[in-house]
Specification:
With 813 residues, the chain is of the alpha+beta class. 23% of the residues lie in helices and 27% in strands.
Length: 813
């Protein structure tokens, strides 16, 4: 039909091409509502399982139902292209809250679409009480109708897009597309296409820590704009394959792409904002006649921006590939992300998530600075740059001078040298790019070079080779004589000794972690000489595994061997060995030999959150604190929701949150953790945890649930927001107890008083107030009022609203 209209119009009005598009644009809503439809009656339902029942459009080109995201994974309630093998998804309802198997979608008697999990919890809902029936249309639109007005929908998926538009769909003012997190993770990512209130169409990076229900999420940096503003603008994907930016009255402002469109009679089409930040127009032939003998598949007809690596320059969000990474455009016009030499992916499963150091940073100790700089070298990256974030610049200088200046500066991690200009950058640095003028020099620790101790010596090493040689000769002679004189005795004693050691070293079956001998850990820690921290039952030492190229570790040695400490050791090994998450400290191994109980963890170079939060020195900035809050929440959520056996940590506090060299927060110290069986939701146990972070139900002999961790997180969140302890005896009056003061400020509308001395937070008061409200919900005295940790994560992300909290001191019934 469109081809006939277009041909007739061009015969009579050859110069009226723009007016033709406007005419088609204005007709789209009318024609779409008059499509054939297959009605879905009230009471109809779909179940998330392998049977995969669906509601099909009349032509069967589109299907609505459940798709499993991965084998044994959750289910998306989605719409997809049904006639092609890929079953490409164009819309989903629950991308950030996957439905477990057995969940049900029902068009309820009250006229609402309701998605609930097997326990009855509502995951998603839409529509109103006036609905008479639903229909899956041939455009790919699912709509709810009232029998009295069958041409006008009460609600439709076309008005709630996720990351994709299809022909006849309109992106109205205030509408957004939000990319997926990755090609396999359908949850909301870091990019969005927004039709702004001023009528301009923009591509932005977005802040996943804050969003609003109206526009999906808050943009924090635009990297492309249509540059055409018009009051009430709309982006319309018409049936000729054009993307028209028009005003409300139909005036054509521009076309999104310069390449001619493709007819929907010959191709399936979609416009998708993908996880790499690129908006791509895809086409898929409906017939072999259009493939020239090639296999049918989705192909990119056009995209923008043309080079995402160069286009995204702001530091927030890390660019297209994440912080500390390099971005280059591949032959397929997709960004290729890599890490500089000496760096590796923060998350191996997230190629766009940025990179971390694989070596110890340069020491800033004045006594070691001159010797430390000799242990570092540069890895050159020609034709590369890491734009922005310079803390120093020098010119005109030589490249050699630039290198020496960076080696002498312990804060310098990268320099970019261009002609006679030297730009110095500190960690973390922005997303790098290739194919530009200049040279990037990345400073890394030389292979096998370790951190010097305060005497200028490497830990565990001696600097007098003559003594080492003499000692070796004497030792060899002694061993030889010993073997000759006592060979038989050595054999018998050695055999007996081996048996005793084997009996003393207990290996726990089923654990995929290393069992160390006490001697190995004594050598690794240089005789337990460098203490990192100390608790009531244990001391943590810094160590280096010689047989793993000097890999730095933290060795936790239990110092009191009472019965409860032995139980704590077994609990910690048992609980954390079951976990695998980027926000939990990784347990590498253990030692259970005789009376010695030791745990070997990954080394966290920035120590505990308490050390940086409550110290007198410079506090972490506002953005870093937000990232820490989000990371801790995700770590707790993993323990509660995603472990093979649900774990209650029981001791969430800043001292048990450790920070790596990128200030990524990881939860540690599982000595008090409780494991729940598959059929358990609560347990009874004696009081555990730390004063000030312990939930009130501990003191009432009530059954303990995961809500005790939610309470502790609420206290930690307040401390993180205000960089102070919840109880500070040095503060007079109502501000002494932070949680009480925070609630009073919420009620009085005076939250800004909490950030008087923090200019950075005063510029972000809306988000600060939201975070305080989340903390108030977490510290409710009644555990039933506290949200589940998954809900807390959603509130932090912005995918769930944060209503005004009740008084936290509301007593338990």
């Amino acid at each position: 039909m469109w081809s006939k209209i277009r041909a007739a119009y061009r015969r009579h009005c050859p110069h009226g091409k723009d007016m033709l598009f406007v005419t088609i644009t204005l007709l789209l809503p009318i024609l779409a509502s008059a499509q054939p439809r297959t009605n879905v009656t009230l009471g109809s339902s779909l179940v998330a399982n392998s049977a995969n029942s669906t509601w099909l459009s009349p032509s069967s080109e589109f299907a609505f139902g459940f798709q499993q995201t991965a084998p044994k994974g959750g289910y998306l309630l989605a719409i997809w292209f049904h006639q092609i093998p890929e079953k490409t998804i164009i819309w989903s309802a629950n991308r950030d809250d996957l439905a477990p198997e057995g969940s049900r979608l029902q068009l309820a008697a009250n006229g609402r679409l309701q998605l609930t999990d097997p326990s009855g919890r509502q995951i998603w809902a839409a529509g109103s009480g006036n609905t008479s029936y639903a229909a899956m249309l041939d455009t790919g639109n699912l709509a709810l109708f009232n029998a009295a007005s069958a041409t006008a929908s009460l609600w439709q998926t076309f008005d709630q897009p996720t990351d994709t538009l299809v022909p006849t769909q309109i992106l109205n003012q205030g509408g957004v597309l939000v990319s997926s997190f990755s090609d396999k993770n359908f949850s909301g990512g870091i990019f969005m296409l927004a039709m702004q209130n001023d009528g301009n169409l923009t591509l932005n990076t977005r802040n996943i820590l804050m969003s609003s229900s109206s526009n999906g999420n808050v943009g924090i940096g635009g990297y492309w704009t249509a540059g055409k503003k018009g009051i009430g603008s709309r982006l319309i994907f018409n049936e000729t394959g054009y993307f028209n930016l028009v005003t409300q009255n139909g005036t054509l402002l521009s076309n999104l792409f310069s390449i001619l469109g493709a007819p929907t009679t010959q191709y399936y089409q979609r416009l998708t904002l993908e996880y790499d930040g690129v908006l791509r127009h895809y086409i898929y032939p409906k017939s072999d006649n259009w493939t020239d003998g090639r296999p049918m598949a989705w192909s990119v007809k056009d995209s923008l921006p043309s080079d995402i690596c160069i286009q995204i320059r702001q530091g927030i969000g890390g660019g297209a590939c994440g912080l500390n990474s390099l971005c280059s455009m591949g032959t397929d016009q997709r960004p290729q992300c890599s890490c500089p030499f000496g760096y590796s992916l923060i998350d191996p499963n997230d190629l766009l998530g940025g990179c971390k150091k694989d070596f110890l940073p340069q020491s800033c100790d004045p006594e070691l600075q001159e010797q430390e700089q000799n242990l570092f070298i540069f890895k050159d990256i020609p034709n590369a740059d890491f734009p922005g974030g310079d803390y120093a610049g020098y010119f005109p200088v030589s490249e050699d001078w630039c290198r020496q200046q960076c080696l002498a500066d312990c804060f310098c991690d990268v320099v970019v040298f261009r002609k006679v200009n030297c730009w110095m950058k500190r960690f973390p640095f922005s997303n790098g790019r290739t194919g530009v003028m200049g040279k990037a020099l990345v400073k890394v620790r030389a292979r096998n070079a370790t951190l010097l101790d305060s005497r200028g010596s490497r830990p565990g090493k001696r600097n007098r080779p003559g003594l080492i040689i003499a000692g070796a000769v004497l030792l060899a002679t002694s061993v030889f004589l010993y073997v000759v004189l006592f060979a038989s005795k050595l054999f018998l004693v050695g055999k007996k000794s081996k048996k005793m050691v084997d009996e003393g070293r207990k290996g726990y079956p089923g654990l995929n972690i290393r069992c160390f001998s006490f001697k190995e850990l004594e050598v690794a820690t240089n005789g337990f000489s460098q203490e990192l921290g100390k608790g009531a039952y244990s001391t943590v030492y810094k160590g280096s595994l010689i047989d793993e190229n000097g890999k730095m570790v933290a060795v936790k040695k239990l110092t009191r061997m009472a019965e409860d400490v032995d139980q704590e050791f077994k609990a910690e090994v048992s609980s954390i060995s079951r976990t695998n998450h980027k926000n939990l400290v990784q347990l590498l191994g253990y030692c259970d030999e005789g009376q010695n109980r030791l745990l070997v963890y990954e080394y966290m170079s920035n120590g505990s959150l308490a050390n940086v939060l409550f110290a007198d020195s410079l506090k972490p900035n506002w953005h870093t604190r937000l990232q820490i809050a989000f990371s801790v929440a995700k770590g707790i959520c993993y323990l509660h929701e995603d472990c093979s056996m649900q774990i209650i940590h029981c001791d969430i506090k800043p001292q048990n949150v450790l920070l790596d060299d990128a200030h990524t927060a990881k939860i540690s110290d599982f000595g008090l953790a409780k494991l729940l069986k598959a059929d358990q939701t609560r347990t009874t146990t004696g009081i555990r945890g730390t004063r000030g972070y312990v939930a009130p139900e501990w003191f009432r002999n009530m059954p303990i649930t995961v809500k005790v961790d939610v309470y502790s997180y609420g206290v930690l969140l307040l401390e993180l927001l205000c960089c102070r302890k919840n109880f500070d005896p040095d503060i007079e009056g109502e501000r002494r107890i932070l949680s009480d003061w925070a609630y009073d400020c919420c009620c009085d509308g005076t939250v800004e008083e909490m950030v008087v001395e923090d200019e950075e937070m005063r510029d972000d008061m809306m988000r600060f107030e939201k975070m305080v409200k989340i903390a108030m919900w977490c510290i409710q005295e009644d555990p039933e009022l506290r949200p589940q940790m998954k809900r807390v994560v959603h509130m932090l992300e912005g995918s769930a609203q944060v209503p005004p909290p009740p008084d936290p001191s509301t007593p338990l019934l």
